[in-house]
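Milestone M4 deliverable, item 7.
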Amino acid sequence: MNYTFHKQAVLPWIDQHADKFTRMADQIWANPEIYWEEEFASKLLADYMEGEGFFVQRGVSGMPTAFVAEFGTGEPVIAFVGEYDALPGLSNVAEPFQKAAVEGGPGHGCGHHMLGVASAAAAAAVKHWMEDNGIPGTVRYYGTPAEEGGGGKVFMARDGLFNDIDAALTYHPAFVNSASKGSCVAVTSAKFRFHGKSSHAGGAPHLGRSALDAVELMNVGANYMREHVLDGTRIQYIITDGGQAPNIVPETAEVYYILRAEKASYVMELADWLREIARGAALMTKTTFTEQFESGYASMLPNYHIADVMVAALDAVGPIPFSDKDMAFAQKVNDALGADNRAYIEQAIEASGFAKPAADLLRQHADQPLLAANFPALDEGIIYKGATDVGDLSQCAPTGELNTACFPTCTPGHSWVNTAAGGMSIGHKGMLHAARALALSAAAIYTDPDLAVAIRAEFVEAMAGKTYQALIPDGVKPGK
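Output delivered:
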């Protein structure tokens, strides 16, 4: 399909304001906030959108750090999505070595400071282009907190805030410039706290009822459950409370479970089974238990039409202009990780299951510590075992995800390397690359009614008459 990108009308505005967007990203990078606590970042972005002429609703869906910014009226409705939460313990200086800026502090090890700003930049650029050229339609920016835990988008989806979107253009920093045609699993998580009776473990064990015994028996049951689940299912847990001392029968103990599967319905089936295992463990130990729901995300539903227009937009922008200094920084990072670029790419190909054409394309660039080139979608048909609340958005509206190279080639996810690269020119250039491609993608959809119809038709066919159902129960409210 041929696309009309309106480069000369859209890109100069982003270029003109590039320094401002870099400063905004650096401000959020320097003030990292974990999920549900993103007061600085959400205010900075909401204030910016308001200053650019958007109508901003703050505190939507019961979340103080969530907002929706809107400009225009009517169809099509095209949405940009921002995240801005950091990760605990990933503070790092913007240097090619591991050194915390604040010891033990949070850091943007997933690049959400770039994610939120790139999407805001694209939304603002499109708004000005629409205004200057009399383009009909609505442009929105969703400020979504707590992607790393809690699932802000799920509460928005549950409240119907995404239902009228014609195309949702999402973005995530990565090590490659591409758009995703892959999916990811659905996930649910909960903590099971058992309550028993304390007693002297040596002198009067018969008087005690061990909550820790119940936790361990539950884990035994869950581990036998593994034999009888569908391929691709993940059952993961940690013991968060195992008692106070070995000579005291533990009165309380807690285990935290995460369940992952390709379909949300199967995740819920497994959650019911796990709950029965907890009941059995309580019966065997004469204890009781309570369950605390933590989070639940739907699986990702990709939209190939949006992915295709994003890939074409990347090509229209061209490669990222990384400098020799950027390349040297990336190589130092890869050396610090003890990682060989080519070997790491081979591991990524094998782990992801990329088909041969996609794998061969990556191999052509595998000797580079930083990938400036643009790639077609590499992951068609692949189901990643990670999860994101973007999945819930994708079950409510046609959704595409763009990726741009903001990190060195050998970067593991959620690492100090991401924090370091995201705070300097590598991250800045990757972020602006994303803003340009997102803006061009939206402009193409606004001015091509046939493309908008095709995007919607693909979504309707993929949903096959199903309706979205949030994995977070109605009674659960946002926040820790």
